[in-house]
Amino acid sequence: MSNCNKDGCHGCSGSEGGEVSLEKKYRTRDGDEVVLTGIKGAIRGGNYPVCGKIYNRYNRTWAIEHWTSTGKYDTNVTMGHLDLVEIEEEKEMKISMDKTYRTENGKDVRIYAVDGGGTHPVHGAIFNDYDNAWGPFNWQSNGVFTAASGDAGYNLVEVKPSIKVKRYIAVYGEHSTEVFHTLEEAKDTDPKAIITVDEEVEEGYGL
């Protein structure tokens, strides 16, 4: 990616058109911050009319890039980690110090701050099972972790409060059972056996 300046992209008029809109907000599929500067450019014969800038948080620079009218970065690349993804602000998760999170790949997370500044203001740590230690990580305000490999496994997901449920299954025969909320109710049906089931589920499970 080439270095970017404040003037935006050469060859872009900034007028609206196509499926990508300047009125909407986007990020890359990898989670990188994107600023669009035009959607009617003449790059590569006009096949990539959408132009803008991608922020590289590793070297803290902006790079000029171009996409198709539908936000595809390169039609010859199947990985698509630089494709544009629309940010729906009203639905976008905002990381809070009052909630508990884990990574998408199931690792425990600690959140230390959500106002660290920059494009990745959420500061915290992920527990590494291999060395039995916590390692520092930064995320965007919506919990997206930008990895050079495009791995989204370290994105944050909220851990909702769990509900403990105890059920009693009255067994009358090989294919005849009934579920009760109390042991007394199950016993009153004169079953041949009673199975006790303890479960713990998160709020919203199955909804």
Structure description:
The chain has three domains: 2-86, no CATH class; 100-159; 162-202, no CATH class. The strands form five sheets. Strands 1-5-4-3 form a four-stranded antiparallel sheet, with no helix packed on it. Strands 8-9-10 form a three-stranded antiparallel sheet, with no helix packed on it. A three-stranded antiparallel sheet has the order 13-12-14. It has 207 residues and is mainly β. Mean pLDDT is 80; it is low at 1-18. The protein has one helix at 183-187; strands spanning 2-3, 26-28, 34-38, 50-56, 61-67, 84-86, 100-103, 109-113, 122-128, 133-139, 156-159, 162-173, 176-180, 193-202. It is elongated and about 80 Å long. The protein contains one helix and 14 strands; from the N terminus they run E-E-E-E-E-E-E-E-E-E-E-E-E-H-E. Strand 8 and strand 9 (122-128) form a beta hairpin.
Summary of the model, kept short:
The protein is mainly beta.
In terms of per-residue confidence, which ranges show pLDDT below 50 for 5 or more consecutive residues? 1-18
Assign the structural class, choosing from mainly alpha, mainly beta, alpha/beta, alpha+beta, or little secondary structure. Answer: mainly beta
Q: Tell me the major beta sheet.
A: 4 strands, antiparallel
Shape: elongated
Strand order of the largest sheet: 1-5-4-3
- Strand proportion, as a percent range, falls in 35-45%
Helix content: under 10%
Order of helices and strands: EEEEEEEEEEEEEHE
Radius of gyration: 25 Å
The count of β-strands is 14
C-alpha end-to-end distance? 43 Å
Number of helices: 1
Count of individual domains: 3
Rounded average pLDDT: 80
